Amino acid sequence: MPVPESTYLSPVWRDGIFKDKVVFVTGGAGTICSMQTRALVRLGANACILGRSVDKTEAAARDIASVRPGAKVIGIGGCDVRKAQSVSEAASRCARELGGIDFVIAGAAGNYVAPIEGISPNAFKSVMDIDVLGTFNTVKATVPHLLGSSTPRIIYVSATFHYTGMPLQSHMSAAKAAVDSLMASVALEYGPRGFTSNSIAPGAIEETEGMARLGSSREAEKAAFIKAVPSGRFGTVRDIADATVFLLSEAGSYVNGQTLIVDGAAWRRQGAIMVGVDNGMEYPDFLLAGETSKHLKDTRKTETSSKSKL
Question: Half-sphere exposure (CA, 13 Å, Cβ side) for 103?
Fold first, then answer.
């Protein structure tokens, strides 16, 4: 069933602003990155999306291509961003089949809910490898192609937890802090060559894989979370897609080395907004008791479960 355009794109953007541009996206079959890509393709771009699952990635590519007659979207499944050769081969195929690379979205990431004592070294390393090494590999693989573009731009999908620290998210906080640091280094090194390099830091985005993993499924907990967000609502995939369109468009051409936070000012109250907990579970009591929400999807609460799934 086609996704309504109003779900992923505001009506303010002019048709064709990305005509003949090519975007290369890691994590492109995910709920956020697929909508970012969908918006760009709708506005004239062609795309290459990468993912671990062959079937899911190829299906997402076909679906995204349907938003605009004549759109070309390549889905490359079986790609592991932790392996430099895998990403390099995908970038070369993208440039060969679509004529180059103009934009990059580094969106591949891994996460789960766990306290530090429940995270094995292997589990921590896995998140760092996907988020940090995977982002580095993406930059290394695409820069040679971006140098041939008149509008070379890179966006990294980040987060806000590392601004203040977040219980049960030490692994992800460390990884995204490193991603933001890499973003800044790319801006400094490649800005003189015409690049822009920026992060987008989403808050809690409804109906996404991240919300399913980090937020309780119970309505009471959702209502309590929303109450703590200054803007009074969850974010939407359209919020992130619109931010992406801005940064990649001419309107964002002088924005460089920055993180665009799209979270309704939630991070300003981050001490009151925590992940992996239910209503009534107060800090630090839930940590001292070793408790997390019983209503999470695929949560990893112990070192044993982390080892078995990573």
Answer: 31
What is the rounded CA–CA span in Å between residue 290 and residue 64? 42
**Contact (Cβ atoms closer than 8 angstroms) between residue 83 and residue 137:** yes
Query: What backbone torsions phi and psi does residue 191 show, to the nearest 5 degrees?
Result: -55, -40
Please compute, for residue 74, the number of CA atoms within 13 A of its CA located in the half-sphere on the CB side: 20
Q: Catalytic: 176?
A: yes
Catalytic residue of the set 86, 120, 170, 176: 176
The rounded distance, in Å, linking the Cα atoms of 16 and 254 is 21
Residue 158 falls in the annotated catalytic set:
yes
| Tens of pLDDT, residues 227-282 | 889 999 999 999 999 999 999 999 999 999 999 999 999 999 887 777 888 888 88
Active-site option among 120, 126, 158, 170:
158
**Structural domains of the chain ordered from first start:** 5-274 (3.40.50.720)
**Do residues 151 and 45 make contact, with C-beta atoms less than 8 angstroms apart?**
no
Percent of the chain residues topping a pLDDT of 70: 93
Alpha carbons 79 and 89: distance in angstroms, whole number: 9
Triad 122, 124, 126: Cα angle to 5° = 65
What's the rounded Cα separation, in Å, for the pair 161 and 227? 19
Q: What pLDDT digit, counting tens, does each position of 106-141 carry?
A: 999 999 999 999 999 999 999 999 999 999 999 999
Q: For 155-187, how does the pLDDT look when each residue is reduced to its tens digit (9 = 90+)?
A: 999 999 999 999 999 999 999 999 999 999 999
pLDDT, tens digit, 9 for 90 and up, residues 28-62: 999 999 999 999 999 999 999 999 999 999 999 99
8 Å CB contact between 196 and 153 = yes
Q: What is the pTM of this model?
A: 0.90
Nearest CA to 161 out of 176, 148, 183 is that of 176
Distance, CA of 110 to CA of 266 (rounded, Å): 22
